[in-house]
Sodium/glutamate symporter
Amino acid sequence: MLNLDAIQSLACGGLFLLVGYAIRKRVPLLARLSIPAPVIGGLLVALALLACRQWEVTPVRFDTTFKQPLMIAFFTAIGFNASTSLLRIGGRQLLLFLGLASGLAVMQNLVGIGLATAFGLPPLFGVITGSVTLTGGPATGMAFAPVFAEAGVHGAASVALANAMAGIVLGSVIGAPVATMLIERMKLRTPIGSPRTASAVAVALADEPPASAPRVEEAAYAGLRNFVWLLLAMGLGAWISGGLGQLGLTLPAYIGAMLVGALIRNIDDRHGWFGLSMPTIDIIGNTCLSLFLVMALMDLHLWELSGLALPLLVNLGVQSLIVVAFCCWPLLQLMGRDYDAAVMASGFIGFMLGTTANAMAVMSSLTERYGPATRAFLVAPIVGAFLIDFTNALVITGFINGWK
């Protein structure tokens, strides 16, 4: 058996990340379903190890030491995105949309617990197949998996992957047809004279005015500066998470870093002390996310899913029906019962079952057919991309501490 150390395992993860991108490029269906490239590459390794297990062979063992810091770095970058100025841009509708998403996350967990109990499984099995992997997606699922494993959920990481992957597919398949039905049945159309979506959102969310291209030295220093602020948030956040843990709270390792990142961002928005560049931080965060996911999936034990297929399928069916019903009412009514509300409903299905990428894909397909939906493209991505991660982490933490 080949034992890879931490550096070699990280390099292997990077290699299969590129393999995932190459496969997605050559299989258009994977791109249309918004399947993340890290999931493709990591799952390829996991399936190969599953096949080897049939012959009782373990060809390689990975050292996943870097998995934890990569995961924390990604969620810290999410924290840096939590700007109160964005809340002001979206106004009341953004807060209402976030409240609806957070409320449905609670409902997903309650339904999951009920179904898990009916199948004789631990209540926390219902939480990991609820908002952890549906609202949260594969990143949140893999981040919380060790916590659920310690709480007694057998094969938590494998369950998280299976549920998250199925949710991504369902979010892509269901979102656009449901919104199309609402638009056609209620005769909803885009208001005449609406600005084009992309330009309107770009102006609203711009971090800084366009400028001439900086010199190489300036660009390198700017990247280094933002990377250091992210590392500082991770370091300070570790102390906060440790302190909260001593109070008896079961929290994900990244929650403290997210909070520090949000604090630094909002101080910088007000005073400009840190010179943050959100595009740079997003690049760092997304890179860390990709490497974290592919390494987490490479070390996955898919054979632990044996016997759980029926509970997972039933849960996904029920959860999908609830999300669709929730979008048709009350979300459509509360968000204005207009064309933008219908497009928002499609995005809501996308990220409440899958990821923000699903939401953007299905919303784009609708606007290509029916016209721009500026308000929808302003509200849904802000909530789905990072605000829901904050509230969902609190929801999950509450359920873990209530049922552990």
